[in-house]
Each structure stands twice: as structure tokens, then as C-alpha cells.
From TrEMBL:
Protein's UniProt name: TonB-dependent receptor
Entries under NCBIfam families matching the protein: TonB-Xanth-Caul (TIGR01782)
Lineage, uppermost ranks: Bacteria, Pseudomonadati, Pseudomonadota, Alphaproteobacteria, Sphingomonadales
Family classification: Belongs to the TonB-dependent receptor family.
Transmembrane segments: none
TonB-dependent receptor-like beta-barrel domain residues: 458-981
Membrane disposition: Multi-pass membrane protein
First and last residue of the signal peptide: 1-38
Region (Disordered): 39-101
Domain (TonB-dependent receptor plug): residue spans on this chain: 116-220
Organism annotation: Sphingomonas gellani
Location of this chain's protein in the cell: Cell outer membrane
SUPFAM superfamilies assigned: Porins
Length: 1014
């Protein structure tokens, strides 16, 4: 096709575009007035130059990892896909034959725009400025700069760990490494972005409309992370980075370092690349928490100081309301260590053949020390209750409240290894054949690691206090206050070691593996303006779960009771003074938040605490005062305790899921003219067939007994025999996709996209058994069950957008989207008896809060994305700004107390602004990120209420990050970074905004480092 236009025709097209844009916003008008001429730099600038060479360097691999031919894959990044003047990259008619080469940040931004502009579908891209120089220190942090993308942070670390795209987070987004799925042992299908080393990533591509040859298994987006290969940069290359990081509360400098070496042979037939990155982050985080707001019914007498047993009968409980299950504060000290490594070997004997063998490895080791206090509430024990207009218990007292001080040593090791082989062969100038195979395995807590090792001490019984709880304000700026704390209400004795004794001892570990085999083969035919691609993929994903804990064998209650000062015959008190290592002040614990806390929490080692209890010996070889001796006929697991707090495997947690998926796809892309205007049409279809097998181990309780050590504790000593349960299911879906792009003028593009995509339910939801754990508490009996017959979420997606590339490295875009989603997985909580067991505290059939999932209702999500990027001529200044507005026809209804309540999670308006300066080797960026309040999930840490699965909302957040770098010369640069300089705090709440669940204060982080490139 001849795309050349007569100058007069070109001018007419420009005039038509100008008329279409005449009603643009005032912001767009302001941008139009900015300099649009050639962006030439001052002489001697390292960042811009005018040259007769091709325009801005382009990546050898564009937006997908499997669209290039073998010859294109073997070309260096600076020549493989360089755009010509017809793409709007020339300096203008006054400089014929000259193009602008821009490197650094602006060069990266221009490459991103070129890929977005030429793509058939809706794609956003972030590319490295140079090898070893990615814009951000975290993948998710980079992605949040894109329109429609927001991040989720780990509360304890403040690190971005996941993303939401157009309101869809978690498993709704698929992440690929070089076009391949990556295994993850975390329990879902999403990856933790904090496990991905960012230093040597080449490019991130976010596909908001599907590429059927890549994947159609994400309703949110598909994220493709592309890593470097030796022939991306032929010759010998070395890149190294080193930095020190300092968090203002942890107050110690920790290192990060990386090294990349790449080389190709003199005859350009062989290439090898290897890199390794070590990353360390230390974070001290202050947290105030409420572990759930269960819903239930109060008796009217509970609004007064006292109640009789008759008044508390179930028939008299008529007032619907919510109360805090547990309240406390803790300091979390986290050490996050990660090693990433990659090896890539390439064989390129001819221009027609490229063979790539690569291996990606990562291992993240998170060690967390927690020091906390906590108080437990039972709804029936609350008095002087004041309910607000929504039914939230905003003030109450509880007599006899025990107080616990806890210390925990938590460890999580996540290790992943993936090996892949890719072969591309150009059979002739039109036909390319590709085969790709990969094997990946991921482990959660491999070996003998204990995931959480806990020590719990405190006082109760005779020393229990009539504690007062009061809500101090809204969860966005206040946490609850407690008063009348301390032994028997004596606040001056709050931390008196003489009255403190041993309580429960909980160890628990989740061991998971995820093993993934995958193969892809496709054929691509390119001729003139027509491209046809056909192929197929096969995945086999096998997931194994296993949880072990001291709940299972009931060893957690071995020395429960608090000891003699609390009036108990069980528990050890006082504890050796050598166990205490000081205290942490709770004064001004969460700066800027209202609320009252007790004065301090203890620092003590849970390892030393458990070792001390174990050193007392075998309680069945000698009498040990304070041991919780069970009745010989109770069947209690404590009959097997011999001094060590060994974990036991919970049979109900064992799950094996094997998922096999076969896919066939066909994609046709052609370019033509529509009404004399360039028109690109892309149509594809993908058929996916999935077979599932889920194997679990089922058992049901046959009795429940109370604990002699603590009246709030229960245990299940006996179960029915264990039975293996197997369930098989299958489903098949046809997933079409259409993309249309019309170029109204040289610089104005209209897009329309329609597709069907799916998201499979998390593998951890597919267990075929009901699991009733042994560790139970009074009035908080719980159980969980899966559903192996869950079907995928299905979405019919529509996009309509316009993009205006009004000058080099600048554009304005608006994109409307609509998603009709069916088969939503609803995680409800119902109250029900199990196997007829009796609750010993009531004498009635036990009522368990059972969490289960079913495919539920449909919903529509709609929204608009606005994006603006502006570079101000040769000044070096520029900015990126975007905003996303999204809503749904199924918002959350806080008045619905049915157990099957439903709403779309993750939806929130968001906005991002990045202002930058990039000139003469100096670069500075200020990033402002805002996200409105949103519904994160259904479910809370303690979700044992009568009104179904209670919600968790995340309050709005606003964070400011600063980064800067300076190129001392072409090989050496220094950089600095300041994150969260406005000390943004993350807070969540329950059904109503005054039901605080968590507030995390994770402080600021500063980094200084250097990069070397040869």
C-alpha cells in the first residue's frame, strides 16, 4: 500500500483533525501553545543531539515477546525498529533529512510513545533508559505511573507488591516473563512484584486489550516483563549498580548491588548474558489494628451496666451491631533480602535462525520481628454499649479483660526458578516459525523453616480489668482509645513483670509448591500490510498446599493460663527477667492520628521464650507446675506433648490441584484505508479448554472441649477418620478479540476494541473439603471450605479512545472502557452446625462461621482514562499526568446484612503526576500518586460474625516520591531517591469508616547509589 500523501491532502487531514479537537479542554489548549518545534539541545549536551542518523533508538523487541522474526530479534536495539519521519519523529521541514536522537529519560519516554502509537490494541509501555538503568527501584512503582494502574502496598514493608488495572487487582492481572507465565507459590495466580529485581529489566508492557497470541486470561491486564538478551546489545557490555538504603525508623544503611555482563562473539553467532542482583530493605513499621469487626446481635440489657443470664438468651438479642474482636498495637521490624539472577545464551548462526536458552532465578527471604499487645473481646461480655446510627459499638466496657503481650519471629522464603528455550526460524521472507518451551517451579518456605514462631505472655483472671474501649474518630486519622488498662485496672502496673505469666504458644508454617510446564508454537505470515499468526499453547500447573502448626496438635495451650498472680493453676509466672530485652514506647506511635494507647510493649525473643518453656522438661516424665495437664480421657493432643513445641500437619490443609489448559489461536492484522484514511484492523480468536483435578483430605470434628487454662479457648480433640476426596471438572471458552485503529490525521488516532477475556479463580479456592481447624475460641468458631467446581470470571470488554500526538514526546489521550463481568466468585460466610457437635459453652449445637466460595452475580464496570505527556521543547522540563475515573452498577451496600452480600472489589479513582527535568546529564523526577478509597476484599482477619463476609476497605492515599541522577560521563552516573517524603500512612476499615482495621506507619526511605556502564 502506498501511504504517501500529496502535501495538500496532508494539509486537509491536519485541518480535519484540528476541527475535531477544537472543543478540547483548556489544558489541551495550553499544551497546544507549548513549543512544538524541533527539540534541539545546546551544544555539548549529553542528552540530545541533532543527527542525520535514524530517530530515537527503538527496542528490538516491541510490545510483545513473540512478534519479531529471527532476523529482527538478532538486531541491536538502536536499529531494529527505528521509526522514520512518517511517524512524526523528524525535526520539521526546516531541517530536511535530520532526525532527533534523544537518550536518557526523554529517550525512554519517546520509545514508549512510539510503541503505544503503532500498536493495534491499547498498550502502555515503560522501557529502560539504557541497559542497567530502569526508571524505578520496583516494578509495581513503575507501573503506577501508567493510566489506569494503581498499586497495593505491603502494610508491614510499605513496598508495592501488586497492581490494579482499571480497578481489577490481584488474580485479575496476568504477569508474564518474556511472554511466559511464571509460577508462584503464594496461593493465588498473581505474583508479588517485590520479588522481581528491576535493575536489569528491559521493558514493561501493559496490555489493556488482549493479544490472543499471548494470553486472554486476564480481565484487568496482561503485564509482560521483558529481560535483556545478549544480541539486544551486541559486543561486550558491562553494567553495575550499587546503592545504600536508609529507612528513617530502622536507622541503618543496607546495601543493594547488581552486575550484568553481556558479550557476543566476533562472528556474531554466539552470545551470553549473565546478571545477578542483591537487594536488601530494612523497615520498622508501627501498626495499630483491630482484627475484625464481626456483626451480630446485642441484647438491650448490654446497653446498661449489667445483664442477667435470661436477658442474654438468644431470643432477647435483637439489636444488630458490630464490635471489635481484638485490639492492639505492634511494631514490626522487617528485613527483606532478595537475590535475582539471569543467564541467557543465544545462538544466531544465520539471519534466519535465533535460538535462546535462558534461566531466571529469584529468592526472597523476609524476616519479621513483631512486638505487640492485644486485648480480646467477646460480644456477650460487653456492657455499657453505645451503638452509633450504623450499629457500630463506639463505646463499651468489658469486665475481666485479659491483656496479652506478644512477640513473633516470622519468616517467609519465596523461591522461583524458570528455564526456557525459544527457537525462531525465518523459513522465507514471509514465513516465521517459533517454538517456545519453559519449566518453572516456585517454593514457599522450602526446607525446615518455621513461618511464624510466637510467644504470648500476659495477665488475666483475677487481674483482668474492666477495660473501656472508645472510637476516637474516623479511621483515616484516628484509632480507638482504651482506658482503665493494667492489672485489675492499675495503669501504673501495666508492664509489671512480677504478675506476667505464660499464655499460648503458636507456631505455624505454610508450605506450598507450584510447578508449571508450558509450550507455545506459532506460525507468522507477513506480506505487505497483512500479518497472519496461528498457533497453540499448553500449560500444566500443579499446586501443592500444606499447613502445619501447634494448633493441630493443641501444643499451643501447653502453658496457657497466665500463672498464679492471675489466680490460675496453669501457666508459669513470673517469667525469668532475662527474657525481657527492653520495651518500645507507644507514645506518638502513629504521628498525626488521634487515639490513646497504653504506654509500651515488651521486647522479648519468642525463641528464647519457647526454649525456656521447653527446658522445663517432659511434663509426663515429671510433674511440672503450670503445665496444662489434660484429662486422660479427653483425647486432647496435649497428651502427646513432651516439651518441644513441634508443629503438626493439618490434614484439612493438604491440597493438590492440577490444571491443564490447551489453547488454539488465530490472529489476522492488516492495514488499508478507510475513507482515504489509514486504517489498521486486527482480529483474533482464542479457544481455551481447561481440565482440573483437585485432591484434598477431609475430616469432621466429633467433639469440642473447653480449656481449663483459659475460658476463652476451645479445642477439638477428636475427628472422624481422614478420607481422600478427589474432584474433577473441565470447561472450554471461545475468546474473540477485535482492534480497530483509524488515523484521522498524521497525529490523531481513534481506537475501538472489543474482546472477551477470562480470569480463573485462585488455585487455593479449589479445595474439595471443609477444613475445621483445632485452634478455636469461644463465640468465634470458624471453618473454611473451597469449591473445585468454580468457573472463571468472564468479561466482555469494550474500549473507545482517541490519541493526539501533537508534538514530539508529547501526547493527549482519552480512553473510555466498559466491562460486563459474569461468574463473579463470591466468598460468603454462613453460620451453620457441623457434624452435630455441641458447643460446651452453650450446651447447644455449635455454630461455625463457614467461609466458602460460589460463582455469583454479574456486574458492569465502566470508566475513563485521561493521559497527558508534555515535554517543553529543549528546556529539559516535562511532565506526565493521568487520571482514571471508574464506577460500577454493583457498588457496596453497607446496609445489606445478608450473608450473600456482593460488590465489585478494587474500584477506585486514581491520579498520577510525574514532573521531570532531563538535560545535560542531570535528571530529576517528582512523582505524586493518589488513589481514592476502595473495597479491597470481602473478609477480615477475624471474620466470625453473623452477617456474612465482612468487607475490608482501603482509605485514600497520597504519596510523593523524588528521584535524581547525574551522568558524570557516558559510563558513570550517580543517583538518589527519596520515597514517601510526605510520610503517607496506609489505613483500612470495615463496613463503616469508623471501624478501623489497620493503620501502618512505614516512614520514609532514602537511597544513594551509582551506576557504571561500558
Amino acid at each position: 500500500m502506498n501511504t504517501a500523501l500529496h502535501p495538500a491532502a496532508r494539509q486537509r487531514r491536519r485541518l480535519r483533525g484540528a476541527c475535531l479537537l477544537a472543543s478540547a479542554t483548556s489544558v489541551a489548549a495550553l499544551v497546544w501553545s507549548a513549543p512544538a518545534a524541533a527539540q534541539q539541545q545546546d551544544p555539548g549536551s549529553l542528552q540530545n543531539s541533532t543527527t542525520s542518523q535514524p530517530a530515537a533508538p527503538q527496542p528490538a523487541v516491541p510490545a510483545t515477546a513473540n512478534t519479531t522474526s529471527a532476523s529482527e530479534a538478532g538486531q541491536p536495539q538502536d536499529t531494529a525498529t527505528a521509526p522514520d519521519a512518517s511517524q512524526g519523529n523528524s525535526v520539521g521541514s526546516d531541517s530536511p533529512g535530520q532526525d532527533i536522537i534523544v537518550t536518557g529519560l526523554r529517550g525512554s519516554l519517546q520509545r514508549n510513545l512510539d510503541i503505544k502509537r503503532t500498536s493495534s490494541g491499547v498498550v502502555d509501555v515503560i522501557s529502560a533508559e539504557d541497559i542497567g538503568k530502569f526508571p524505578d527501584s520496583n516494578v509495581a512503582a513503575s507501573l503506577q505511573r501508567l493510566p489506569g494502574v494503581s498499586i497495593q502496598r505491603s502494610g508491614s514493608r510499605g513496598e508495592p507488591t501488586g497492581i490494579s488495572v482499571r480497578g481489577f487487582g490481584g488474580d485479575f492481572n496476568t504477569t508474564l516473563y518474556d511472554g511466559r507465565r511464571i509460577s508462584t507459590a503464594t496461593g493465588g495466580r498473581q505474583i508479588d512484584f517485590s520479588t522481581v529485581g528491576v535493575d536489569f529489566i528491559g521493558q514493561l508492557s501493559v496490555f489493556k486489550t488482549p493479544d490472543v497470541s499471548l494470553a486472554s486470561s486476564s480481565i484487568g491486564a496482561t503485564v509482560n516483563i521483558q529481560f535483556p538478551n545478549p544480541f539486544d546489545h551486541p559486543g561486550f557490555r558491562v553494567a553495575a549498580t550499587g546503592s545504600g538504603s536508609y529507612q528513617d525508623r530502622a536507622k541503618n544503611v543496607v546495601p543493594t548491588g547488581g552486575l550484568l555482563i553481556s558479550s557476543t562473539s566476533a562472528n556474531e553467532k554466539f552470545g551470553v548474558l549473565a546478571d545477578v542482583i542483591y537487594t536488601r530493605r530494612d523497615t520498622d513499621t508501627n501498626r495499630v489494628y483491630v482484627s475484625g469487626w464481626p456483626g451480630g446481635f446485642f441484647a438491650p440489657c448490654q446497653l446498661t451496666p449489667s445483664c442477667t443470664a435470661a436477658q442474654l438468651a438468644p431470643a432477647n438479642k435483637t439489636l444488630a451491631g458490630w464490635f471489635p474482636q481484638q485490639y492492639g498495637a505492634e511494631q514490626q521490624r522487617v528485613e527483606d533480602e532478595r537475590v535475582d539472577a539471569r543467564v541467557s545464551l543465544q545462538y544466531h548462526p544465520t539471519d534466519d535462525l535465533m535460538v535462546t536458552l535462558d534461566n531466571n532465578f529469584s529468592r526472597q527471604n523476609i524476616t519479621q520481628e513483631n512486638y505487640a499487645f492485644g486485648v480480646w473481646f467477646n460480644q456477650s461480655d460487653l456492657r455499657n454499649v453505645k451503638l452509633d446510627e450504623n450499629g457500630t459499638a463506639v463505646n463499651f466496657t468489658q469486665a475481666g479483660s485479659p491483656t496479652d503481650f506478644t512477640a513473633a519471629l516470622n519468616k517467609q522464603i519465596l523461591q522461583t526458578n524458570q528455564t526456557g528455550l525459544n527457537v525462531k526460524y525465518d523459513a522465507n521472507e514471509h514465513l516465521t516459525l517459533e517454538a517456545d518451551a519453559a519449566y518453572a517451579k516456585s517454593w514457599l518456605n522450602p526446607g525446615n523453616v518455621i513461618g511464624s514462631l510466637n510467644g504470648d505472655i500476659g495477665y488475666g483472671g483475677n487481674l483482668g480489668n474492666t477495660l473501656n474501649f472508645a472510637i476516637s474518630g474516623d479511621s483515616k486519622d484516628a484509632f480507638p482509645s482504651i482506658s482503665n488498662y493494667g492489672p485489675a485496672g492499675n495503669a501504673a502496673q501495666w508492664a509489671n513483670q512480677a504478675v506476667i505469666g505464660s499464655h499460648v504458644t503458636v507456631n505455624q508454617t505454610q508450605h506450598n509448591t507450584d510447578e508449571l510446564y508450558q509450550f507455545r508454537g506459532n506460525v507468522t505470515w507477513k506480506q505487505d500490510d497483512l500479518t497472519i499468526k496461528a498457533g497453540g499453547q499448553y500449560y500444566q500447573d500443579t499446586y501443592d498446599f500444606r499447613n502445619q502448626s501447634t494448633f493441630t496438635n493443641n501444643f499451643w495451650q501447653a502453658y496457657a493460663g497466665y500463672g498464679g498472680p492471675s489466680g490460675r493453676t496453669t501457666g508459669i509466672s513470673p517469667l525469668p527477667a532475662s527474657l525481657y530485652q527492653g520495651s518500645i514506647s507507644l507514645n506518638d506511635f502513629i504521628p498525626g492520628f488521634k487515639g490513646t494507647l497504653p504506654p509500651s510493649v515488651f521486647k522479648f525473643s519468642p525463641v528464647a521464650y519457647q526454649n525456656y518453656l521447653s527446658s522445663l522438661g517432659n511434663p509426663y516424665a515429671q510433674n511440672i507446675p503450670g503445665f496444662n495437664y489434660p484429662s486422660p480421657t479427653s483425647g486432647d493432643g496435649l497428651l502427646g506433648f513432651r516439651g518441644a513445641f513441634d508443629e503438626a500437619v493439618d490434614p484439612g490443609s493438604i491440597l493438590n490441584v492440577r490444571e491443564r489448559t490447551w489453547s488454539l489461536y488465530l490472529n489476522v492484522n492488516f492495514k488499508t484505508e478507510l475513507g482515504g484514511l489509514p486504517f489498521t484492523f486486527n482480529a483474533g480468536v482464542r479457544n481455551e479448554t481447561t481440565n482440573l483435578r483437585a485432591i484434598g483430605q477431609g475430616r469432621l470434628p466429633t467433639s469440642i472441649v473447653t480449656s481449663a487454662a483459659d475460658p476463652t479457648l476451645l479445642s477439638i480433640p477428636t475427628y472422624t477418620p481422614i478420607q481422600a476426596v478427589t474432584n474433577k471438572s473441565s470447561y472450554s471458552y471461545l475468546l474473540p478479540s477485535v482492534d480497530a485503529k483509524l488515523e484521522l490525521t498524521d497525529n490523531v488516532i481513534l481506537r475501538f476494541d472489543a474482546s472477551r477475556t477470562l480470569t480463573r479463580p485462585g488455585l487455593n479456592l479449589l479445595t474439595p473439603v471443609l477444613n475445621v481447624g483445632n485452634g478455636q475460641r469461644v463465640n468465634a468458631l470458624s471453618a473454611s471450605g473451597g469449591n473445585p467446581n468454580l468457573r472463571p470470571y468472564l468479561a466482555d470488554n469494550f474500549d473507545l479512545g482517541a490519541e493526539w500526538y501533537y508534538q514530539r514526546n508529547s501526547y493527549l489521550a482519552v480512553n473510555f472502557f466498559l466491562k460486563n463481568v459474569s461468574n463473579f466468585v463470591v466468598g460468603g460466610v454462613t453460620r451453620q452446625p457441623i457434624n452435630g457437635v455441641i458447643d460446651p459453652t452453650t450446651g447447644q449445637p455449635a455454630s461455625f462461621a463457614v467461609s466458602q466460595q460460589v460463582n455469583g452475580p454479574d456486574a458492569t464496570v465502566r470508566g475513563v482514562e485521561l493521559a497527558l505527556q508534555q515535554v517543553f521543547g529543549g528546556s529539559g522540563f516535562g511532565f506526565q499526568a493521568n487520571a482514571t475515573f471508574v464506577n460500577t452498577n454493583r457498588p457496596y451496600d453497607d446496609k445489606d446484612i445478608s450473608q450473600s452480600g456482593f460488590a465489585v472489589t478494587g474500584l477506585a479513582n486514581s491520579a498520577n503526576f510525574v514532573g521531570f527535568y532531563d538535560k545535560a546529564g542531570f535528571q530529576f523526577r517528582a512523582a505524586l500518586n493518589w488513589r481514592d478509597k476502595y473495597l479491597l476484599q470481602f473478609g477480615q482477619n477475624q471474620n466470625t460474625g453473623s452477617f456474612g463476609s465482612e468487607p475490608t476497605f482501603v482509605n485514600q492515599s497520597f504519596q510523593i516520591d523524588l528521584t535524581s541522577s547525574y551522568d558524570i560521563n557516558s559510563h558513570f552516573s550517580v543517583f538518589a531517591e527519596a520515597l514517601n517524603i510526605n510520610n503517607n500512612q496506609q489505613s483500612t476499615h470495615g463496613r463503616y469508616s469508623n471501624q478501623l482495621l489497620d493503620v501502618f506507619d512505614y516512614g520514609r526511605r532514602y537511597t544513594v547509589g551509582a551506576r557504571v556502564r561500558f
